[in-house]
Specification:
Elements lengths: L1 H17 L33 E8 L9 E11 L4 E12 L2 E15 L5 E16 L17 E16 L3 E8 L10 H4 L6 E8 L1 E2 L4 E11 L5 E11 L3 E11 L15 E9 L4 E10 L10 E9 L14
Antiparallel strand pairs: 1-2, 1-15, 2-3, 3-4, 4-5, 5-6, 6-7, 7-8, 8-10, 9-10, 10-11, 11-12, 12-13, 13-14, 14-15
């Protein structure tokens, strides 16, 4: 009976993943998602094999008025000898007068596909609040009937799904975000642009370069209809199993959206990333994003800070190493 329910759940998951449509607008991006896959894939929940909490703060294009600021708190753990994962995600994203707040609960069922390999099938469900403060806008003609006098907000249900495969040396994942909730938005003119289908495809590997050095190349592809295909190419080095140092190159391609304006394909940036195990339980991270396009002359770079806490010390014996 237990196996029957597992197979039914697997089939339902594939059906949900195949029913998606795509629209426009990017969700908040993070440079340090490579150390916390819960930002881009619900199937990641439970991967670390122990309770883990992480908080991330990102400020983007710091010299622009109303530039994006994003704050998240995520937590996940495994149960039932690693066959199940649970997670919680809280996100606050502010861009000028607009604010998005999201809370999600995650469940992942982890199937052991080999001696040291697993396939996680995850679902996140929750609610998103979309708000806009009209008092922060400056209309050309006053009063403007299309601009609210004060703060207005609305709520929409939300659903994300994902598959995450990994073994000791390789991982790959595919996920879909914002799968429901579009029709629940009453004022599409201000909220629709924030709630659209997003597709994520990611993979990476770990390569030994000696007893003290490991190399982890990886990539992430984001796809949204109405926007260029966005990709990250990452290269990280691990020294002494304590310090991660590397970088990420981010750019766009016109794969499915060939009719987009030419200037949308030039949003290039490079990120320098460092992650340190400050103690056996505390992990600190910092990323500095530097624009390589027309914004580079305005010094509108981005900063990202993260703090992670493991409930179990690193010296404890684990089934799954924390490489990914």
């Amino acid at each position: 009976m237990k196996k029957t329910f597992n197979y039914i759940g697997f089939i339902l998951m594939l059906l949900v993943l195949s029913m998606s449509e795509t629209f426009a607008q990017q969700l908040p991006q993070f440079s340090q998602y490579i150390f916390n896959g819960l930002h881009v894939n619900p199937g990641y929940a439970g991967y670390k094999g122990e309770p883990y909490i992480q908080s991330t703060y990102r400020t983007q294009w710091i010299r622009f008025p109303g530039s994006p600021e994003t704050f998240t708190v995520t937590a996940d753990l495994s149960a039932n000898e690693g066959t199940m994962g649970f997670g919680v995600s809280l996100l606050s994203d502010n861009i000028g007068p607009a604010r998005t707040t999201t809370g999600m609960l995650t469940y992942a069922y982890r199937i052991q596909t080999g001696a040291r390999s697993y396939l996680g099938l995850g679902v996140s469900a929750g609610v998103s609040e979309y708000a806009i403060d009209g008092s922060m806008l400056d209309p050309n003609d006053f009063p403007d009937p299309d601009i609210p006098d004060g703060l207005i907000n609305m709520f929409a249900p939300n659903l994300n799904t994902g598959l995450f495969f990994h073994n000791d040396r390789f991982y790959a994942g595919f996920s879909v975000y914002n799968m429901i909730g579009k029709k629940a938005l009453e004022r599409e003119d201000f909220a629709l642009a924030y709630h659209d289908f997003h597709y994520y495809l990611t993979a990476g590997a770990l390569i030994d370069l000696g007893e003290m050095v490991k190399f982890k190349p990886s990539f992430l592809v984001r796809e949204v209809k109405g926007a260029p295909t966005n990709y990250d190419l990452n290269a990280m080095f691990l020294f002494g199993e304590r310090i991660w140092v590397g970088g990420s190159y981010r750019s766009n391609l016109k794969i499915w959206n060939e009719n987009l304006p030419e200037n949308l394909s030039n949003r290039n940036a490079f990120a320098t990333i460092i992650e340190i195990f400050a103690t056996d339980r505390i992990r600190l991270g910092y990323a500095y994003d530097h624009n390589l396009n027309v914004l580079q002359d305005y010094r509108t770079n981005s900063h990202e800070l993260s703090v992670g806490f493991y409930m179990t010390p690193r010296r404890a014996v684990m089934k799954n190493q924390r490489w990914f």
